[in-house]
Design a protein that fits this description.
Number of strands: 0
Shape: elongated
Strand content: under 5%
Order of helices and strands: HHHHHHHHH
Length: 205
């Protein structure tokens, strides 16, 4: 969250975005560099969390509760879940860059992201409800699809059709969010620090 805010609204607030855009580098490459930085931080955080949870489960003898079989570490499932984390990081980073591009200050960007953070808790709660499975319909719902797919990977009950739909839809959502961020990043409003509206993405940069 914070790298995304600092690289968009933070630079507008400090007035450094003008000097960055004035450099002899295409705006698209600047945006890709910012996106890569946010994804990298997200992946590092995901790896630390994954390792910490793995150590906790192993040390506490709770691995059997997670896998339903024995206390051995499900390396294949963990590798697959890491792949989902990469996918999720790419999607969520694009969404964060898109939303923070509307903000004029660090605090305003935080205010925009609070509803998103609260909304992101709902899929986790949904995955705890018994009987909820990854259907082709739920596979098209952002966030929900990745969480349910990760749960089914651990349980070994993955539907290939639903899994493919979840992966492809998440990639499409990430590309759409990054496209919106690119449209906003190319507008003059982001350089002048003036108001940016949703209509900015429909105007030529």
């Amino acid at each position: 969250v914070y790298p995304a805010i600092d690289l968009t609204a933070g630079e507008r607030e400090r007035g450094t975005i003008e000097a960055l855009i004035a450099s002899p580098v295409p705006r698209g490459q600047v945006l890709v560099a910012k996106y890569s930085a946010v994804v990298t931080v997200a992946l590092l955080t995901a790896i630390v969390n994954l390792v910490a949870m793995l150590i906790t489960l192993k040390a506490g003898g709770m691995m059997r509760l997670l896998t339903g079989t024995d206390d051995s570490i499900p390396w294949l499932s963990l590798l697959q879940i890491f792949g989902l984390l990469v996918l999720f990081s790419g999607f969520f980073s694009a969404v964060l860059l898109c939303l923070t591009s509307f903000a004029k200050s660090f605090k305003e960007a935080q205010a925009y992201l609070i509803p998103l953070m609260l909304l992101s808790l709902a899929p986790g709660i949904l995955s705890l409800i018994p009987g909820v499975q990854l259907t082709p319909t739920l596979a098209l719902v952002p966030l929900v699809n990745i969480i349910l797919l990760a749960r089914e990977l651990l349980g070994g009950t993955v539907d290939p059709v639903a899994a493919t739909a979840a992966i492809l839809s998440t990639i499409a959502y990430a590309a759409a969010a990054l496209g919106v961020a690119a449209r906003l990043f190319g507008t003059d409003a982001i350089l002048r620090g003036s108001e940016i509206s949703a209509g900015a993405m429909f105007r030529r940069p």
